[in-house]
Amino acid sequence: MNMLRITLAQLNFTIGDLSGNLAMMTSAAREAAADGAALVAFPELALTGYPPGDLLTEADFLARVEAALADLLEASRATPDLYWAFGVPLARTGPGKALENGILVVADGAVVLRYAKQLLPTYNVFDERRYFEPGPEAAPVLTLRTATAKDIRIGFLICEDAWNDAGGDYPVNPFTRMREAAPDLVVILNASPSDIGKRGQRHALLTAASRRHELPMLYVNQVGGHDQLVFDGASFAVTPRAGVVFEAARFSEAVVTLAFADGAFFDADGRALADVPAAGLSAMDFYHRQIVLGLADYARRCGFTRAVVGASGGIDSALTLALAAEALGQENVAAVTLPSRFSSAGSVEDSVALCANLGVRLFTHPIRDLVAAYEQGFADAFGLPLRGLALENLQARARGAVLMEYSNHFGALLLTTGNKSEISVGYCTLYGDTNGGLGLIGDLYKTEVFALSRHINAVAGRDIIPAAILEKPPSAELAPNQKDTDSLPPYPTLDAILKMLIEGERLSAEEREQVRADYARLAANAEGAALIARVRRMIWKNEYKRRQAPPILRLRPLAFGSGRQMPIAAKYE
């Protein structure tokens, strides 16, 4: 049987690093050629990295793209028998935007196919219509003529082009034209960010489309963290009969060569590929790996080798420290405990135990005198003592100032420790515990913070996060004997309300049924309905705080980042 070899280059590109991205592509192409591949497929906008954002509006950047493209064409001459398929912004003329989100297929220094993405997403974290003009309805098909296989016709699409087969979001379904063109195989170049339910969505979507249109498909995705977004890779192959038969590694780079013949996929040695298990990672495994990769890439790309975390003795800072130590190395993470006159001795002791378990250095910087000086200064200036919520927030701001001092002086990335439950309802202090360059757990509800902490302990086989931290009632410790439940409902109740109000139908199928049931039980009685109304008001009232928070790694379908665009100055009923 004559087989066509195709290499999937699932790489971790850096936005704007055109020379670095080209070097990665060239290396993967050499590997593909050595494997006897006829085609190497790279992700969407591979040359620039995705999403390039407003870099696409800068003339200098676009000039560099053109120069890098010329270098890529020259590099392809070193592999004359190999086709390179990759994503790149393409210049266009005529009315509308000046760019298209495109694919080029090149071989031996020449462009042999050009295609422009037809469907441009403008929802959630996507804003492609801001930069690109949609391409015309077309089914780009390339006939590969190789010495080792019969001619094989390959069609190409880009990411969102494959997400409208049900016809619900756009008037155009690119699969219609593609089915009419009847290629032997469809290759889809993607930059599909990861969230808790995305892998299952991709598999279901492409399996259904493959069967409906009787088209085998290869799905090539990028991997890596880019600001708030994390891409998990997980490139895969799907056939009409067998479904998903191959999946590349998740959360790591992979350059994999597959063979294709007569509508079926085989490994590089010619063995038929088996079905890929439908079950993916558990929710906690997924959160764990997504955060670690997101932080590692964020720090590396922003030039940080070290991080610092305020260690309160609570669960949020404990989990943040554990994740940071794993992502950056324990020797590159510092913790600072900042006790006030309201801090319990147990909180400091718990921080000591945690940092000993992690191998992280712990510094102690009491804030009692700092707070007292601020109190005295306030009274001298305004003739009134500082008390109540203003005094509580002052303590958080004093801690934030010290942590930023450390960050500035030692060049360490300050990691904020707020979770989604607290950020949602404003249970945080602006310019205090919201200080930082990145939030690792800001897309985890409080109940998930506890669950992920227990998961980390289970994976380690020991209590990295001490049992005392897991078991004590959450408290900000900004007032005598303070508990979170003094101001908030119990977290299991609060989280059920928040999930429904914030994410609703975007919840994963696994969560949606239980959340709906919990929410319905609350709404069925007057007390519960009043609580829901109170939480809703808290979310609305604190949108201004959320907007000023640092970037938060996206874990869920609707995260607190660019995907949530609510007005601040508005009247909510």
Briefly characterize the structure.
By secondary structure, the protein is an alpha/beta fold.
Supply the key terms:
573 residues; Nitrilase/N-carbamoyl-D-aminoacid amidohydrolase; Rossmann fold; alpha/beta; elongated; seven-stranded mixed β-sheet; six-stranded mixed β-sheet; 20 strands; 16 helices
Describe the 3D structure:
The protein is α/β, with parallel strands linked by helices. It folds into two domains: 265 residues, Carbon-nitrogen hydrolase (Nitrilase/N-carbamoyl-D-aminoacid amidohydrolase, 4-Layer Sandwich); 204 residues, HUPs (Rossmann fold, 3-Layer(aba) Sandwich), CATH 3.40.50.620. It is built from 16 helices and 20 strands. The protein has a seven-stranded mixed sheet with strand order 5-4-3-2-1-14-15, with helices on one face. The chain has a six-stranded mixed sheet with strand order 6-7-8-9-12-13, with helices on one face. The protein has a five-stranded parallel sheet with strand order 18-17-16-19-20, with helices on both faces. A hairpin with a 7-residue loop joins strand 3 and strand 4. Helix 1 packs parallel to helix 2 and helix 5 packs across helix 11. It is elongated, with a radius of gyration of 26 Å. It starts with a strand and ends in a 26-residue tail after the last helix.
